[in-house]
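Attaching the record inline, Q. Sequence:
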Amino acid sequence: MQNVELVVQGMSCGSCVKHVTKVLQAVEGVRRVEVDLAGGRVHVGGDLPQGVSPLIAALATEDYPAQLVSGAVDAATPAAVAPQPGVSKKSGCCCG
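Structure, as predicted:
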């Protein structure tokens, strides 16, 4: 099982936590999602043969820009991708 840590922008309430969790749990291979709202970080564990790319893409689709925390991938995880340029939270929190 691989473990990665992402910094996720745009999370500001419990609804955001639930939404981000649901989005990431839908990614193939994800077994565990832990969201730290105060820290803006998400820990993901599972079998991630494609690395973090599908995680970052899924979050970007929902307007939650994310990037890999430097050094936050265990040795079994394939190489990380950089955050996608130009992706930004257009509407702020999901509540607003």
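The CA atoms of residues 3 and 27 lie 14 Å apart. The helical segments are 14-25, 53-61.

More tomorrow.
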